[in-house]
Amino acid sequence: MSDNLSLKAFVVLMKSAKSVEDKIKKDINSFGMKTSDFAILEALYHKGRQTIRQISEAVLINTGSITYVIDKLENKDLLERINCKEDRRVVYIEITEKGKQLMDEIFPKHQKVIEHIFEDISTEDKETVINVLKQVGKKEENNKGDNN
Questions:
Q1: Prediction pTM value
Q2: % of the chain with per-residue pLDDT over 70
Q3: DSSP states of 82-138 as a string?
Q4: Which CATH class is domain 18-116?
């Protein structure tokens, strides 16, 4: 029986994730942006200056693709590259004033969309979902490389 519940939990999780992802993509597209562009700007907007590796880990985009997206955003003057004075191999990415102004305008609207998705879920249930999904993620992080 628990195997059936595990399968059902997986299917419900995947369907729910797809539904939320579609809603979020539609919202981000309404601002004339791609999800990857928004994710990078959002990471810099909230976390400040980051390396490409840090951004890649934060937004789950591989470093090869992220360089292309950063180039596009830099050409739009939404972010800039800054060389590290202590280590010439390190390049930081930082949101520009123009990028900050854009995020000041659109992020509150985006946050309202997310809040709307979860508005009928109690605080307790949200905390439960967070904790359960963390457990699933940690278990799989600890088991990387295992096929079981």
A1: 0.83
A2: 95
A3: EE-SS-TT-EEEEE-HHHHHHHHHHHHHHHHHHHHHTTTS-HHHHHHHHHHHHHHHH
A4: mainly alpha
